[in-house]
Design a protein that fits this description.
- The protein has 2 domains: 13-166, Sandwich (Immunoglobulin-like); 179-303, Immunoglobulin-like (Sandwich).
- It has helices at 87-92, 132-135, 168-178, 238-245, and strands spanning 13-15, 28-34, 38-40, 46-53, 59-60, 71-77, 107-109, 119-120, 125-131, 142-150, 161-166, 182-187, 192-194, 200-207, 213-216, 223-227, 254-257, 262-268, 276-285, 292-294, 298-303.
- Strand 19 (276-285) and strand 20 form a beta hairpin.
- It has 304 residues and is mainly β.
- The two termini are 45 Å apart.
- The protein is globular.
Amino acid sequence: MSVLRRFVAGAMLAALGAGHAWSAQATFSTSISVRQSTIKLGSPIRLTVTVQNTSAQRINISIVDPPELQFHVNVANAQGTPASLTEFGRAVRGESGGGIGFSGGAIRRGSGPCAGPTCLNPGESQKFEIVANKSYDFSQPGKYYIEVEPVGDPMAKSNSIMVTVATPSEWEQYLEGLQKPFALFISTPQQTIRAGSKPLVEIYLRNGMTHDIVVDQAIMKYDIQVRDSQGNEVPLTEYGRDLRKRRDQGGGRLDTIEPGSEVKSGIYIDNLRQPGEYTIQLARMDEDSKVVVKSNTISVIVTF
């Protein structure tokens, strides 16, 4: 994918406070995600951009409006050909011949004093949204690869994600292919742990209907099955037994999920106290249809 061209209308990097020199290395990282990887033609492609302080000092990340002045979006089709910029996309890059004009802001960072929501301690992050359709033309169905690059900071370029823009008929087929009211997918970043540790299980719930659904994110709504290498269910802890008793109760965060979109939650598994290999699977009942939906199965290895 082609490297972003430097924006010339003042979107420059400036140190916070006099006398603070810039480092040759990026002091922050950029990552992007999208709530759904298959998107109906004409729908907005909403990117969640996360900027994280990767330095050992407090820094100030000041994002201007529109953020595309500081974070250029790169888009290419499945063949690697760059997509066409919109008038807005050309304007934020200083290429517009007229009609739209912007004055750039600065991504400010440095070791001087800072305060407020833009001040990030080491490891802290700030999130904001960019709608990719504003900068690029997605009028043709197909697969697109998207990344975001901070102006003047190629070392802080984001990961690349792929989205599929589907025609209305393909979109309906996609929703029908889900077959169930919702789909469950689980994963864990901790596939090998020490005995007594509590691995995080990340839960992704995707709406399989053609209309919005409201989901109670209370953990007791999930039936959590943990089994050893012989297929025997691992005894529940007191907390686990209490959750199972209260399975029909709610009271968690209510999330409204659009068709084809998903929400993320998580739970820590606390009954892996003996070395061995274990499998984890979740299930949840749809309140309306009474259909029980099961997740995929993941494995965790427990060592001494």
